[in-house]
Design goal:
Distance between the termini of chain A: 38 Å
Radius of gyration of chain A: 14 Å
Number of helices of chain A: 0
Distance between the termini of chain B: 37 Å
Structural class of chain A: mainly beta
Strand content of chain A: over 45%
Order of helices and strands of chain B: EEEEEEEEEEE
Structural class of chain B: mainly beta
Shape of chain B: globular
Oligomer: heterodimer
Helix content of chain A: under 10%
Order of helices and strands of chain A: EEEEEEEEEEE
C-alpha cells in the first residue's frame, strides 16, 4: 500500500540532542509530508518534499527523500522539550483506485527530556 | 487568517444514535478532508470534498457520510453509532488545487473527540 511506516515507533532523547525519524513507503509518490501532533490535538504541517527533491530544510528541520529506496528521514536538530509530540509522515500519490489522496503512517512518539 | 475550526470539540453519544460534526475551513480553501484517528488504526481517511462534490472516499461503511456547502463549510454524519466509532475526528482544509496526483499541505482543525457509550 501507499501508507508510510515510521521508524522507530518511539524515541526518547535528551534536550539538545538530535532526533532522526524514518519513513518507508511502498508505492510511487508525488510528494511526502511530515506532520506533528501534540497530545490529542490536530496535526500541524511541518514540511513537504516533492518526489524530484532530495533534501529540504526548514529551521531546525531537515528532510531527505530517497525515491529509489522509497524512504524519507526527518531530522530535528538541537531538540527542545517542546518538540515532544507524535510525528507522522504522509505520502501523496495515485492510489490503486485511480484517485489521489494523502495517506498517513501510524506515527511515532518523540519524547524530549529536559 | 483564522484557522480550521471544528464543532463541537467533545461529544458523548450512545450506540444507535447519530451524530453530525461540523468543520469550517480556512478562508479561501475549497477542499475539506475528514480523518478518523484511533489508537489502534491510526489516522484513516474518510472522504474529501471539493467545491461541494465528494472527490475522494476512504474505506468506511455507508454509515459515514458528509457534505460540503457553497461556503466550503463541511459536515460529516455518522448514523447508527457503534462503540468502535469512538475516535478523534479531524478535519483538514487545503486549496485543493492539486495536479498530477499531488496533494498539497493540509491544515488541520483541533478535532472532535467522539465517545460512544
Amino acid at each position: 500500500s501507499q501508507q508510510g511506516e515510521e521508524d522507530p515507533q518511539a524515541l526518547s532523547i535528551q534536550e539538545g540532542e538530535n532526533a532522526t525519524m524514518n519513513c518507508s513507503y511502498k508505492t510511487s509518490i508525488n510528494n511526502l509530508q511530515w506532520y506533528r501532533q501534540n497530545s490529542g490535538r490536530g496535526l500541524v504541517h511541518l514540511i513537504l518534499i516533492r518526489s524530484n527533491e532530495r533534501e529540504k530544510h526548514s529551521g531546525r528541520l531537515r528532510v531527505t527523500l530517497d525515491t529509489s529506496k522509497k524512504s524519507s528521514s526527518l531530522l530535528i536538530t538541537a531538540s527542545r522539550a517542546a518538540d515532544t509530540a507524535s510525528y507522522f509522515c504522509a505520502t501523496s500519490g495515485w492510489t490503486q483506485g485511480g484517485s489521489e489522496k494523502l495517506v498517513f503512517g501510524k506515527g511515532m512518539k518523540l519524547t524530549v527530556n529536559p | 487568517k483564522a484557522g480550521v475550526t471544528q464543532t463541537p470539540r467533545y461529544l458523548i453519544k450512545t450506540r444507535g444514535q447519530q451524530v453530525t460534526l461540523s468543520c469550517s475551513p480556512i478562508s479561501g480553501h475549497r477542499s475539506v478532508s475528514w480523518y478518523q484517528q484511533t489508537p489502534g488504526q491510526g489516522l484513516q481517511f474518510l472522504f474529501e470534498y471539493f467545491s461541494e462534490t465528494q472527490r475522494n472516499k476512504g474505506n468506511f461503511p455507508g454509515r459515514f457520510s458528509g457534505r460540503q456547502f457553497s461556503n466550503s463549510r463541511s459536515e460529516m454524519n455518522v448514523s447508527t453509532l457503534e462503540l468502535g466509532d469512538s475516535a478523534l475526528y479531524l478535519c483538514a482544509s487545503s486549496s485543493g488545487l492539486t495536479s498530477g496526483g499531488s496533494t498539497d499541505t493540509q491544515y488541520f482543525g483541533p478535532g472532535t473527540r467522539l465517545t460512544v457509550l
